[in-house]
Amino acid sequence: MSATTETQGAATDRVRGMLTGADAGRRRTDRTMTVLVYVAFLAAITPLVSLIWTVVANGIERFGPDFLLFSMRGVFGGMDAGGAYHAIVGTLVITLSATVISVPIGIMTAIYLVEYGRGPLARAVTFFVDVMTGIPSIVAGLFAISLFGLIMGPGVRLGIIGAIALSVLMIPVVVRSSEEMLKLVPNELREASYALGVPKWLTIVKVVLRTSVAGLTTGVLLAIARVIGETAPLLVTVGVTDSINFNPFDGRMMTLPVFIYRQFQQGLVPCQPDDAACITDINYMRAWTAALTLILIVMLLNLLGRLVTKLFAPKLR
Amino acid sequence: MAQRIDVKDLNIYYGDFLAVQDVSMSIEPRSVTAFIGPSGCGKSTFLRTLNRMHEVIPGARVEGTVEMEGVDLYGDDVDPVAVRRSIGMVFQRPNPFPTMSIRDNVLAGVKLNNRRMSKSDADDMVEQSLRGANLWNEVKDRLEKPGSGLSGGQQQRLCIARAIAVKPQVLLMDEPCSALDPISTLAIEDLIQELKKDYTIVIVTHNMQQAARVSDRTAFFNIAGTGKPGRLIEMNDTATIFSSPAEKATEDYVSGRFG
């Protein structure tokens, strides 16, 4: 009996040695890599936090109903007045138009690539989408302005031209993300639908798109976030104005990124020493506040996207 | 309601690759026909040609004829969508639509086809189909819950309910129990026995006891080697196949000597 206990004790020790002592080197590597990953995370998050902090700290002072609801019409010098209403309107109208143009084209291209595309045409489409991803934004702007210059004569500036320039940038992002999302839909669901005698197009509309709608929304929002801050193409296609313009088919519009650029470019105001109402760095302050507004718009869009994702995602219970 | 299927000299290709060669058989109405054979011998491929589901795979095509009550399913004027409407299919892994409730899953054949239906008709169809699939009592209080919240066996019965809701003539089952536990398997086998009163049923199975339990006729498929096409070796009454098969290969397979 005691012999058995002894043997058992020895076996326990041996197993304990086997399970605890082994691989000190691996655990050291594990700790090193963990530290590295945390350091990389901090390195990535620091500039982001610093950026948001700077924008909020500099922009919060002028942020308020006055800034959101007044344009720059009749505002000059160091006046303590003026806002970005016209720029917010312009950004929303132009980005919305660009989205309306790019999302159908982008999603239908993705549907073609995933559900129908075979052979050389599909490969060519994929290749050109890849090429489009790399187009510099100013080139997209020049493309749109010269296209409309051919039709409507030189010097034309319209919101819709900016929207087309932005959709050139947006389409490849929408195609890429939608393609990945459609590929994630299990083939079994398509087969289940075919086996019920559902034609292919209805299967795509009602099963494939419906199942992936949450992912598609995320992709579209990413594409919007990608273009909403574009400055260069809008500067050349839409131009600059101080007035409110809701109509993308009629005349120049202001947009938030261009507004920021304009205000920053105007720089310090040379104030008269006796003019108490004059603020020297008013232009910089407006630029920061507009930047804050732009970030808030993107954030709101993302929250909206989260909501859509939550509502439409496949549920388990 | 149930229809007979006659297959004549069917060759099935994936691109240039001949997957199944020279199959001729008759599938009787109101009976259960089982396909057995080793993996890769073309049972599932052959099953999928019976409702033109193999065409979903690019490059797949057939030579020969598959006739339902004398009508060639591969005739020029035959719509594959209509073929799939009258020959339903249940897959190996339960695949309810994850975005739909249990009720909507049963109605999927109607809803996905954009057909309108009064609420009372829809309710009747849901209850009838779920009763037909022996699932009604388990889910009647949670019809609006997502179908993917059910257990594997319940999901598979939901898929059967979905398939019989479109009132097909023939029901194809591709290893319907291979992902299920023995109790769910038994439930499905009982269900097959009931369904055979109204439908022609074809089932692919790897489980020979299952073939012996549920089927009236059994077809044994085999493959000579990798890269060679699968063939129908022998088809007969299930009792004959399992007691005194004509071919040596069949006897070896059903007695577990190979495969």
**Structural shape of chain A:** flat
DSSP summary: helix tally of chain A: 12
Determine the structural class of chain A based on helices, strands and strand pairing. Answer: mainly alpha
Order of helices and strands of chain A: HHHHHHHHHHHH
Shape of chain B: globular
Order of helices and strands of chain B: EEEHEEHEHHHHHEHEHEEHH
Q: Determine the fraction of residues in helical runs of chain A and give it as a percent range.
A: over 70%
Helix percentage range of chain B: 25-40%
Distance N to C terminus of chain B: 37 Å
Main beta-sheet strand count, sense and barrel state of chain B: 10 strands, mixed
> Segments of chain A where pLDDT lies below 50 for 5+ residues?
none
Query: What is the CA-based Rg of chain A, rounded?
Result: 28 Å
Mean pLDDT of chain B, to the nearest integer, reads: 89
Largest interchain contact: A-B, 25 and 32 residues
Question: Runs of chain B with pLDDT <50, length 5+?
Answer: none
* Rg value of chain B: 18 Å
Strand order of the largest sheet of chain B: 5-4-1-2-10-9-3-8-7-6
